[in-house]
Amino acid sequence: MYHQFKVLISDNIDEEIEPPVELYGYHATSSFANDISMPYLSYFAVRLGASFEQIAWIQSLMNLLPNSLQYFWGWISDTKSVRTYWIIGGSIFGAISLYLLSTVNDPNEMLFLVIIYSVSLSIINPTWAALQGDWMSPSKRGSTLSKFHVIGGLLGLVGSLIAVYSVYTNDSDSADPFRPLFIFASIATFTGGLILIRVPYRDPERIKDIALSESDKKEYSDTFQNYVRAQAFYALNMSLIWPLFAIILIKVLEVDNIVLVAFSLIGALSEMAFQPVMGRLVDRVGPLPVLIMSRIGFAILPFIYAFFPHIEIMLILQVVILGPCFSAFLITSNAMVLDLAPNKERAAYFSYYNTRVGITTFVGALIGGYMAGYLENIYNDTWTAIFIIFIISGIGRSIGTIPFLRLKSPKKYPGSIYLVDRLMEFRMFKRR
After folding, report:
1. How confident is the model at residue 418, as a pLDDT?
2. Do the Cβ atoms of 22 and 196 come closer than 8 Å?
3. Of 250, 256, 258, 266, the residue nearest 316 (C-alpha)
4. Parts of the chain with a pLDDT under 50
5. Tens-place pLDDT, residues 170-225
6. String of DSSP letters for 273-335
């Protein structure tokens, strides 16, 4: 019989707290920096003449390095002084690399700067996730995380609109319209780091941890490991198609730069619109059912891309599937770790999680890029190569959804008893 942990979510409530406004400010500026630059990184690379293999390396290293180096920085953040100092330092480092990225003219030069920028993210990401957790009431994690993402989405939307303007006013199918975007991202990244100087220190030692028996501690640990393994396998199959999108849009569908930025803008709008809904849903039923929903949605996408390779279809999918699924994933992936991690070890837990997932996305993106290049040479056709990888990714994602159905919900939420327990009563998903 499927069962949940005996500890209720209310057991971990220390006090009702509200994150300081500076945290929202940092998230807003970092979202602006991300949304005005990272969606266009692959497009920029293709316009510079990058191959399948070079795009694969850029995508892979952007996942491997920020995540594989996190364990060290997460441990440092948990044991050494104030978390904000590390985020500020990483932001300054990242701002410099983003500015230099705007000046490159060769894919190999770009690859080097991507490596440098990735190191800055390895400092920021686990520390930022832990800092957010320090300032969240456990009973309101879903709604608080959605508030962060909505505010970040609004600034990200501004970044996307600036990208549209930059491309529209520079009517060229070269890399030049994308260069100002990295300069704006550099300024925003530096500004975000400065904002955190005003954040008061909140000692994780003072935050009440869940009182667990030894058996319950093992339950939490086992669930965390199962969760990490499930996410890592799914990420492997997700990342297979990541190096392909820029080439599909530019070389197969032959869209111009304004359509490229519109594609990203529509996705950002859809994601932002669904954030409040997903946040309230997580608070009601817990992160696990919402995460399962996003995994199912992402498993469907590659099959639709493969059989309906039209820009109109892809734009519709940005709204009806990708937006809600990605917003659900953003909230639930962190909420699951926060539910399972001891307060004093949050950064280390996030680092471990991100490292495992980052390694598999690194491998997946490399496999996808090199496989596409290999199949293109065999069939002498770019689309045939992409079609095959889409099908492989879709099958892999479908298989990868099953481990999530077997996970235990880490805590009881108001709606979880009915929804999750009923779902897990199906015999095929029972734990043996």
Report:
1. 47
2. yes
3. 266
4. 1-14, 206-213, 416-420, 423-424, 426-432
5. 766 778 888 999 999 999 999 988 888 877 766 555 444 444 445 556 667 788 88
6. HHHHHHHHHHHHH-HHHHHHHHHHHHHHHHHHHHH---HHHHHHHIIIIIHHHHHHHHHHHHH
Taking the C-alpha atoms of residue 330 and residue 146, their distance in angstroms, rounded to an integer, is 9
> Among candidates 199, 182, 232, 263, which has minimal Cα distance to 333?
232
**pLDDT for the residue numbered 77:** 60
Distance CA 143, CA 8 (A): 18
Q: Name the maximum alpha-carbon separation found in the chain.
A: 64
pTM of the predicted model as reported, rounded to 2 decimal places: 0.69
Q: What angle do CA 430, 431, 432 make, to 5 degrees?
A: 115
Return d(Cα 362, Cα 68) in angstroms, integer.
10
The per-residue pLDDT for 171 is 62
Give the whole-angstrom CA distance, residue 287 versus residue 336: 6
381-412: b (≥16 Cβ within 10 Å) or e: ebeebbbbbbebbbebbbebbebbbebbbbbb
Rounded to whole angstroms, how far apart are CA atoms 368 and 236?
A: 10
The predicted pLDDT at position 79 comes to: 58
Between the two ends of the chain, the Cα-to-Cα distance in Å is 9
Give the Cα separation of 360 and 367 in Å (integer): 10
* Gyration radius from the chain CA atoms: 21
User: What residues pair up with 8 in beta bridges, in sequence order?
Assistant: 412
Domain ranges of the chain: 17-200+213-429
Q: CB of 399 within 8 A of CB of 299?
A: no
d(CA 114, CA 107): 10
pLDDT in tens, 251-261: 788 887 778 77
pLDDT of 182 reads: 93
pLDDT digits (tens, 9 = 90+) for 304-319: 999 988 888 988 888 8
Closest C-alpha among 21, 72, 118, 115 to residue 347: 72
For helices 21-35 and 179-195, angle between their N-to-C axes, nearest 10 degrees: 170
Q: Report the CATH superfamily, name and number, of domain 17-200+213-429.
A: MFS general substrate transporter like domains (1.20.1250.20)
Give residues with Cβ within 8 angstroms of 396, minimum separation 6: 236, 237, 240
Backbone angle region of 254, left / alpha / beta, with phi > 0 → left and psi within -120 to 50 → alpha: left
Q: How far apart are CA 359 and CA 203, in angstroms?
A: 31
Q: Is 426 exposed, middle or buried (0-12, 13-18, 19+ CB in 10 A)?
A: exposed
